[in-house]
Fold each of these.
Amino acid sequence: MTTISAPSASPTASRGPQVGSFLPPPGPVPLTRLVGLEVRKMVDTLAGRWLVIVTLALALVLMVAFAIFGEAPEVTVGTSLGAAGGPLGILLPVLGIMAATAEWSQRAGLVTFALEPRRGRIVLARVVAGLVLGVAVVVVSVALAYLVTAATGLLGRPSGYDMSAAQLAGFVVVMALSVLQGVAFGFLFLNTPVAIVAVLALPSVIAVATQFSERMAEVAPWVDLSRSGAPLLEGTLTWTTAGQLATSSLLWIGLPLAIGTWRVLRSEVK
Amino acid sequence: MCGVCAARDGGDMITTERLTKTYGPVTAVDDVSFAVEPGRVVGFLGPNGAGKSTAMRMMTGLTPPTSGRALIAGRPYAELTNPGRLVGVMLDASAQHPGRTGLETLRLVAIHLGVPRSRVEEMLELVGLTADEASRRVRGYSLGMRQRLGLAAAFMGDPQVLILDEPANGLDPQGIHWMRGLLRDFAERGGTVLLSSHLLHEIEAIADELIVIGRGRIIAEGSLDDLLAPTTTFVRSLDDRTLAAALVETGAEVTTTPAGLSVTADAETVGRLALAHGIVLLRLSHGERAGLEELFLTLTTDQDRAGPVARPTGAAA
């Protein structure tokens, strides 16, 4: 058998142009494109889309319910966000987890990692994508809080705009940290249900663990991420509380993210 | 000579050099070296668990090799810029998110590769998925439709190389014929194709060169014609008994059938031997072409390589 290597030698070469000649020459894939793709992948499936819709809907329902049935003397942006804080605090980490794990359970990662073999870029893109979508949800929630407050005022009931720009920023940062924690745990476990259980159980575990002794109770503020964000919300950040936020973030976001990234870089994609 | 011989010059599009992968005590891929030139459709044939998929994952940077390396156009896959524009990869047709539509699945690939959106419709047309089918979620796709979707994704970046794991799985005979045309056309325009299968008839229908793999090792490689070349000669003479004895003396294996002798030697050798012994030949011809299935079974059966399998040779061609 003779070598067939030059396509022009083939009598059927007239069937079409040479392969690799249809499209303009390939360029590198910018990170912004990867981030855009990951955001899109988070909302183009039913699960992802409904997670966002349910999160915002729950936030709105709770804000309205609080405005109507709440015991507070007045409805403010702060009380509205407080009412919505529960679902946001639970569902935003789930959003982050799904950003990290979705393709791991669906095997679609085979396609993604074949298209981008430098896996660190995919990890980075998913972290950023989780943040982008999570912060978008938080910003919409803040806007809803203003709407509910304004509507309450229009109805002639006591209302007020009580949050400073710094407090609002603090709220966004705290929520963004909860998304990041979800992403980190997602990469750590590479398994959606396990990561969700771990993230949701963590505050209770820490609370129980730090009740055992005085010394543990002293350590608690430095390791409890669910509490160390409070000064940001209250606008009472000091060097000490900032340090506590930093150590607890490193412990529950930095460390799992580092281990998870190492897992993704090392593991075999099947 | 042959497109799948040992690695040589830089013209090869897919090269593996002593590629090896071990999982603990198990060696999934064992010292696999080959090279595929442009213009070839090469079949990677082996039973399930032979190491085909592992080898392909190593070629595409998804599994790190234990030792050895795999190169695409002379470079490790992980070093390629925008690899989807050079290599179309389909490693598992089922590895698509079931909750996305076929159209969305392809759009994601198109965005990633940076190709025009119009390319998505072209690829749907190429693989024969209708707009209606493309707008449905992948969950409801048959395996054959998933294969077509996976091929559309693999072709999206206008690649020069295709690496396809079990692409014919789930296709009906017409589908296999269609794929043959698609891949042949691609190869004739200068493309390089490596596809795997555990089914002989698929490979026979699509590939023109073969790499047979069993237990992680390459067992045989070469063109389909070479691998199918007759291994026996059929001969009938006025004195089969004497001729058989003479042939056995030369080391050939002889099977006596009612119609004559089936000999593991070529026709010239048999003819010269008959001349030397003054035996009149009544008939001298090639034995049957070795069936690929038989070849496959022969090559992959446990250590059973003592000698060519004797075949009934009633009606030689």
Amino acid sequence: MSDWKQIWIFGLLAALLLLTPVAAGRSMGDPRVTVQLSTGIAKLGEPVVIIVKVEGTLDGSIGELPKTKGLAIGPVSGPKTERMSTFRNGRVSDSLSATWYISVVASAEGDFEIPPFLISAGGATYESQPLPLQIRRDMQGADLGLMSVEIFPSKLVVGQPFEVVVTFGWDRAIASKINISDLSLPWWGQLPGAIEIEGSSARKLGRDYAESLLNNKTLVEVERLGVTEVRGSSFETFQLRRSFLATSPGRVLIPSSHLTFGQRKATGFLAPRVPDELFYVAAKPLELVVGTIPEEGRPDSFVDAVGSVSVRAEVDRREVSAGDSIKLRVEWTGDGNLEFFTLPNLSHSAGLDGINFYGATDEVKERGRRVSVFDLAPQSEHVRELPSISLVFYNPETEIFETVATKPISIRVHALEGVGGLEDSDSPTVSADIRDILTGPLSSGGGRGTPDSKFPYKAGGALGGVLFVWLGLRSQVRRVGDPAAPLARRRRAAGRVLRRALKSAQTSQERAGAFSAFLGARSGESANAWIGRDLSALGDDQVVQELASLIRELDHAVWAKDVTQGPADHELISMGRKMESLDMEQLVASLRGASR
Amino acid sequence: MRTLSKGVVLVLALLLMAGPSFPQSSAESAYRAGDYKSAEAHWAAELSELSAVEGRGALLYNMGNAAFRDGRYLEAVARYTGAIEESPRSEDYWANLELARSRAGLDAADRGDLAATAERLYTMFRLSELELLAYALIGLFAVALFVEALRGGRLPRVVSFVLLFALLSISGLRFLRGEKNLTNRVMVISEGGASLRSEPSPDLPVILQLNPGAVVGRKDSLLGWIQVECKGTSGWLEERLVFPLDRN
């Protein structure tokens, strides 16, 4: 192996070893670290704070603070720790968090980027994202612009979705001049205690969309709302919406957000630079308190549904035969966590007598709407309706567990043909039942036997013995000659021919013919070649002499035309066996030599 | 003498025509009277006295019927499943199992799809039957080899190879089933499922919740608790919440 190859393999192994603990750590529920600025745009001299929040552990520290020209970063204050215990499904779970605040003071106006720095939490080290910060000497535009951040609903519990709505715009009078819009949302992607719900940024049909810069880095699609009257003026307004799921109890801080809008002047290669005409408008910071679902009054059938939920149901058909499936389509709507709660299990529902429940699947699962299909099969014509399906949910607005239920749906079930039905009301109702018990002496008989723990050894031994005997027998047989050789096969075939022919032979001529056929098959000649052949001159071999004598006797019997004369069948078969050791090819060669 | 002989022959003939008849057992009497718990207790006592597996399937089946009639469908499912382990081809056992599973709100044991059919084929023979089949195949294999040794030829060789392949398949199946049997499975028969804890103590947190009808492999037991493994998680369950499916 070459040196380069060894280095490559060792490098690969080292990389695998380094990656393994990272992957393992991720899968075991690491702490969550979020880093955000208190504002993305600030006036010169206005205090700015970097907020570092670690969730899931109290064990954390801030590494060396970064240095940026024009910004004085530090000192660090905190951590401020929070511990909240919740009792859920009989188990107590703690949610822990620690928050640090890092002061940032700008010495001049300009666009800055706070470089990444390291945070240790729960034994692992995390790196923050670069944080963009714009410092402006003067921030005009509060009258020309519009900016607000709202959260719906205002009261939240863990497991409940909520929506953050950013509404912004500018005075219609300057709308034609606006060619830049930049949303400064320092909480974007860094909202502690909440995760963004997948698909919440999807476009909605029939809406008009535009694009805006986000955090001076990326473009984001915003919905165009049109002209709105605010403070007595007409504003061109836009909206950005995102849905989140509250994952842990406590306070969720949404720092101050800003909108930068205005006109960026185009400059030529040699033309003097013209300053941009920009305006700024701010939205107030928000704080959201996420509560927990109370244990008190929680019904057993609660399946973690939170928020407001309403329901309606329909069936694909109302008239079926007994045993046929009906698809009950249930549509859940509302601002609850429709995507996340477990569907009610009808298997244990009391109202399903005579109806088989084959399971439920989700047809549609999106924000604000979920459609589930329950597969039900009424088993007899006595079933008149599908029962209501109920769902218990916790409503944070009213702070009580509420129940929504579908209305029972009337159906008509036809009895199966030949089983009796409505027309045949005198007949007894037929339904499935178990087969009867077994009687007699149950604990004896059967004789199926217990499995043998020594079976592998016994079977292996038997198989080995068989193979051993086969090898021995085979080598012994092959020592005499190959039993599958043409001569050996001809010999065996001739014996079979003789026995078969003698069975059906009635006269001496037929028996002589059968023996001639045997000799022909043995020697490879025709049967006729052996009629009247004289072997007496072929030496003193006893078998040859006996054969010559037998052929003569057969010949005489044929000429005597007497059925009773001639050698018996067993003598012919016995002769055939004696001839097994006889080399017929040599015998025939001798005969031909003698005849010449 | 001749009359006596005729009488004996007549009595024997009548006995043969009537077939075997057995006195009604106390368990059967209790069952017919609707006292299912008592019938079940009798059969359970008979089961505990069994030294071999003969009759275990029938006893479990009857106990399943008693649990079914008593409305304890999950227990019935567990007992029928245990009975099928002993007599995998019994139509009665399968019919009652499917009905009990339906009443217990569980999916059908034989869903009729390819996987379920393959599973049913895989378990259609008992271990002892597989062993008997393997020994028979060894006998046939010996005959085929004997013919091959004496006569040679292609046919005995082909037959020998086919028999050897069948023998190895059956032996492999027997080996796999034997390994599976060693896991000593139990079924959750509690209506509310069963909670898996890291140690045999009800005060410790639940690490996994098992649904009614879930089948898990037993590893150990300790004073009313059993250690099981499910989905790669090992933990302890209260023994009263489960029913053993396999022979101990």
